[in-house]
Amino acid sequence: MKYLVTGAAGFIGSHLCTELLKQGNQVWGLDDLSSGKLENIEHLKGNPNFEFVISCISNEAILQELIKKVDVIYHLAAIVGVKRYVEDPVKVIDVNLCYTSRLLELAWKHDKKVVLASTSEVYGKSDKVPFKEEDNRIYGSSTIDRWCYAISKTADEHLCFGYAKKGMPVVILRFFNAYGPRTNSWAYGGVVTRFINQALKGEPLTVHGNGTQTRCFTYIDDIIKGTIEAGRVREAEGKIFNLGNRNEISILDLANKILEISGKNGSIVFQCYEEFYGSSYEDIPRRSPDITAAEKILGYCPTISLEDGLKKTIEWYSKKL
Q1: Domain boundaries in the chain?
Q2: Among 3, 123, 139, 149, the one annotated catalytic
Q3: For the chain, which has fewer Cβ within 10 Å, the N-terminal or C-terminal residue?
Q4: CATH number of 2-182+217-246+287-302: 3.30.420.40, 3.40.50.720, 3.40.605.10, 3.30.70.260?
Q5: Can 188 be counted among the known catalytic residues?
Q6: pLDDT in tens, 205-226
Q7: What is the mean pLDDT of residues 233-248?
Q8: What is the pTM assigned to this prediction?
């Protein structure tokens, strides 16, 4: 099979390219390196089945040529990271919605299948946990920039279903707190990576809020298995799937677990949201997925425990320091 992965030099994208190539496929990767890193795909250099193109998905000529070559498009390119949503909502909507709209139009024109990377953020402030794919979405005020990402991804999903009605095969994946090697370690990266880097450097682990908010963290290998199956299984077309796991943990407990596994005697400090994100932010107390649909249709079964996943991730980052 021939695949196009947008956002190929990012965290999930680089792991996806690696596994697709390992399975004997031909892969084209596209990334403008605004947040992705060449070092994430350095190990793929020289692979005759991999071609990497540095370009933004807004470059229609390049995008169209790549789309013509492949069977399936994994569309992962997006502006991600809560701090980035708050800082530049215009760019978030431009990239996540406008550029995606054009990609879907070209995929439809050339009769290609699209797997869209959406997000657990689309559930917004709903307190109906665990989240099911068909549940209602509840967002905050449009004066709160934090919601621009969720709304842009929700609009992407509507676009996908619109093209599905025309006959284009599409699958939507809502990722829940993926983590593992190659996650961004800078200020916009996920909380797991931030805690690990702080612990390894002997810095206090910074918990935003009071730490009682809960998340379900999913190791990257499990995410990739589900993502690949979404591009293969015909029954998945025209559907949305949560990809995550059912094991909730508070952010404070996560911080303590990372200190324990890393063997560091670090401290934990608390920081108010406004100090880090500014006033245009709201947090979500609980985020937990119902993964029944993915289990049934994709054969999805997360197998890597949080403890094992953290050990793998800590070991990887330890070698980077």
Answers
A1: 2-182+217-246+287-302
A2: 149
A3: C
A4: 3.40.50.720
A5: no
A6: 999 989 999 999 999 999 999 9
A7: 97
A8: 0.95
